[in-house]
Design goal:
Blueprint lengths: L3 E4 L5 H12 L3 E6 L2 H13 L6 E5 L5 H14 L5 E3 L18 H8 L1
């Protein structure tokens, strides 16, 4: 049975590899990334696999609380159901550790978003 799965941080590494496995299984994927260029490359790689799995990409900066709220609102409007959420996005090192919301970037992305 096909599931609708949201993967945050799906532009490379573990997130992208997870997306590839789930696409090969025929699931409908919502892939998230902060960088539109990297997100488009990830989407192209998944489409290039030729699995025919459903795929949507969502650009969002999880360190901005307003972006996170808009992201959640858009998912609520578009999706009938979300079966699985894979919270893969995370921040370890960052040149600017304080977000526009005056939060630690690691805390904002890794815990709040």
């Amino acid at each position: 049975m096909s599931k609708t799965i949201l993967i945050t941080g799906a532009t490379d590494g573990i997130g992208l590899e997870t997306a590839k496995i789930l696409a090969a299984q025929g699931h409908h994927l919502l892939i998230h990334g902060r960088n539109p260029t990297k997100l488009a490359q990830a989407e192209a790689a998944l489409i290039g696999m030729g699995t025919g799995a459903g795929l949507e990409s969502i650009t969002c900066d999880l360190s901005r609380l307003a972006d996170v709220a808009a992201f959640a609102d858009s998912l609520t409007e578009k999706q009938v159901r979300l079966d699985v959420l894979i919270n893969n996005a995370g921040v370890f090192n960052t040149p600017d550790p304080v977000t526009l919301d005056a939060l630690d970037a690691r805390f904002a992305v890794n815990a709040i978003a």
